[in-house]
């Protein structure tokens, strides 16, 4: 490990120690300052691969930090969803959320990726978002700006989060007819998953490697053949903030591309397609085996550092103006 990487890890561990001592992770001056410092430390592109570090202390810190980030993000969204819910038309005031521009850019990135695999004449019509939370900005932005005829089914395990999210779109005559909320653990959602052409998996559904793979395997079992899965991941030092999804984790899917933004959009995006038909071995019926998964060829996947956002800043600015 190089000197720069050692300094980076030490800086992150110091910030973690300070965050772990906070009495609460609800939005406040100290919480906002520390998490901003953490994000700015982890944001610059770095060759570090945190998943391969052998240092047990660093791996434990990373695991705890991801959980703290998830908790803080949930509290932040709850705070602003509550605030937005006090307005007569909440969607007219989304610009009070301090990270709206990040969601606009991430949604634009994900839509741009999707358009490479769907024709403009036949965009996806039914979309599921797993782990939508109390402030479902991705669904709102995609439905408002990009997929204006699609229906969005948002799944979250927390009934309060769904109640808050539903309140935000209830007064909007368009989205209230196209956006639905389901209180379910995704592991209990089975046959309904076949109804969706695209399924988004939020970064914080499955907070560790085992949990994430369990959810992905469940989606592989129940999604429609040929349907698209959009998974949020992390790369480089950003893996201190969010779990990493390796292409090899997507068993039952053909990985189409992995995109690693280098700007303020923190999440990487993995797009995959469920295999059209299960791959069977000719000996399966003799041995009573299930579908045979194709061997993973991570090195064959098209992985690139992709940031179309620099070319689309004007478009983002228009969207921000439209939502503000």
Automatic annotation (TrEMBL):
Keyword list, A-Z: S-adenosyl-L-methionine, Transferase
EC number(s) on file: 2.5.1.43
Gene Ontology biological process: nicotianamine biosynthetic process
GO MF annotation, one: nicotianamine synthase activity
InterPro entries membership: Nicotian_synth, SAM-dependent_MTases_sf
Enzyme class, UniProt record, top EC level: transferase
Keyword Flavoprotein: no
Top-level taxon of the source organism: Eukaryota
Reaction catalysis annotation: 3 S-adenosyl-L-methionine = nicotianamine + 3 S-methyl-5'-thioadenosine + 3 H(+)
Family (UniProt): Belongs to the nicotianamine synthase (NAS)-like family.
Biological role stated in the UniProt entry: Synthesizes nicotianamine, a polyamine which serves as a sensor for the physiological iron status within the plant, and/or might be involved in the transport of iron.
UniProt-listed PANTHER family: NICOTIANAMINE SYNTHASE 3
Protein name: Nicotianamine synthase
């Amino acid at each position: 490990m190089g000197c720069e990487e050692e300094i980076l890890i030490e800086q992150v561990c110091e910030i973690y120690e300070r965050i772990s001592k906070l009495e609460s992770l609800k939005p406040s001056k100290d919480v906002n300052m520390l998490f901003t410092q953490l994000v700015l430390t982890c944001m610059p592109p770095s060759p570090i691969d945190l998943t391969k570090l052998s240092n047990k202390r660093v791996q434990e810190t990373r695991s705890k930090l991801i959980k703290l980030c998830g908790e803080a993000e949930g509290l932040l969204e709850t705070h602003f969803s509550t605030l937005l819910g006090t307005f007569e038309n909440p969607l007219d005031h989304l610009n009070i959320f301090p990270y709206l521009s990040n969601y606009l850019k991430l949604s634009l990135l994900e839509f741009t990726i999707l358009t490479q695999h769907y024709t403009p004449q036949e965009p996806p019509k039914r979309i599921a978002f797993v782990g939508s939370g109390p402030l479902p900005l991705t669904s709102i932005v995609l439905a408002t700006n990009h997929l204006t005829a699609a229906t969005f089914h948002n799944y979250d395990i927390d009934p309060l989060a769904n109640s808050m999210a539903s309140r935000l779109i209830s007064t909007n005559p368009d989205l209230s007819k196209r956006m639905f909320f389901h209180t379910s653990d995704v592991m209990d959602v089975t046959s309904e998953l076949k109804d969706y052409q695209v399924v988004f998996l939020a970064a914080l559904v499955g907070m560790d490697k085992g949990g994430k793979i369990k959810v992905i395997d469940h989606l592989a079992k129940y999604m429609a053949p040929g349907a698209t899965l959009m998974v949020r991941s992390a790369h480089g030092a950003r893996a201190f903030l969010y779990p990493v999804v390796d292409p090899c984790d997507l068993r039952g899917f053909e990985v189409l591309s992995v995109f690693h933004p280098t700007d303020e959009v923190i999440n990487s995006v993995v797009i995959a397609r469920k295999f059209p038909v299960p791959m069977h071995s000719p000996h399966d019926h003799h041995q009573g085996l299930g579908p045979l998964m194709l061997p993973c060829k991570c090195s064959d996947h098209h992985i690139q550092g992709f940031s179309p956002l620099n070319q689309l800043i004007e478009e983002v600015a228009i969207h921000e103006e439209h939502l503000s």
